[in-house]
Amino acid sequence: MKRLIGCALLILLTSSVFSQELPNLQQPVFKTGEVLRYRVRYGLITAGDASLKVENSDVKFTNRPVYRLVAQGKTSGPFDLFKKIRNRYDSYIDRKNLTPYLYTENVREGNYIRNDKARFYQDERKVVSNEGTYKGNMQTFDIVSAYYFARNLDLSGIKPGKIFTLSYFLNDGVSELGIQYIGKERIKTSSGFVNCLKFSPAIKPGRIFRKDSKLYLWITDDNNRVPVKALAELRVGSATMELISAKGLKEPAIYAKN
Fold it and tell me: How far is CA 179 from CA 56, 168, 191, in A?
């Protein structure tokens, strides 16, 4: 559940491997007030819920206005009895270039509690967290800001098979994530059929994933670019994350349910 939510928040889009600055659109595809809610299933069993929100903030960094992004995940049903998870992740991003200034984690998993924060200095290419100072790149993200920045990437000329990398900070270091664009696909959702762009991020085998496990992500092929589904192949079985409601979208959409 924890790993699936983390992977699903890293829903990213682009057309090739970039060693230079990643290009984004002039205007964000999202707006203040957008709320996306998801249901996470392990097989046929509901395992938990996740949400993503865009909020206004009075906080300023280097005198620049920011969006406050809030991601939350929790277990439900039998999974809540086994190990209760109540996690929250906040990211403060620049309203123009969408890169993060500050990221905080509030993790509650059973008896385990962790509160972390990281300050991003993009011009100096470094990240300062509770654990130390780390070297970043031209653009370094946290897992929440990465998702919103990726929704706003310029995808002109994207072709199946193209891969890109994105630098992100998580826990105790900066890593790179490679993501492959698979192509266009029409999928069925609770609101009907939706035209999507399909991607496959790279994953590391281990306790959760097999060596040949895959993670697939479907993002709406429209001006909102909302992730509507994620599918992760696990060591035992598979897990899915599906959009159940979308409010406050910048443009109307058939998959936006109240």
Answer: 30, 13, 27
Residues 212-250: tens digit of each pLDDT: 667 889 999 999 999 999 888 776 677 888 999 999 999
pLDDT higher than threshold 50 for residue 15: no
Q: In which residue are the tokens 């969408």 written?
A: 98
Q: Kindly report the CA angle at 58 between 223 and 149, in degrees rounded to 5?
A: 30
Condensed to tens digits (0 to 9), the pLDDT of residues 20-79 reads: 456 677 789 999 999 999 999 888 888 899 999 999 999 899 899 999 999 999 998 888
Instruction: Retrieve residue 23's tokens.
Output: 């290009």
Cβ(37)–Cβ(6) below 8 Å: no
What does the alpha-carbon distance between residue 133 and residue 83 come to, in Å, rounded to a whole number? 32
Q: How far, in Å, CA of 25 to CA of 28, rounded? A: 7
Q: How far apart are CA 218 and CA 228, in angstroms?
A: 6
Do residues 228 and 219 lie in contact, with contact meaning Cβ atoms separated by under 8 Å? yes
Q: What is the pTM of this model?
A: 0.85
Instruction: Of 141, 142, 151, 80, give the one whose Cα is nearest residue 109.
Output: 80
- How many Cβ atoms from other residues are within 10 Å of residue 246's Cβ? 22
The partner residues of 240 in beta bridges, in order of sequence, read 41, 231
- CA of residue 223 relative to chain centroid, distance: 18
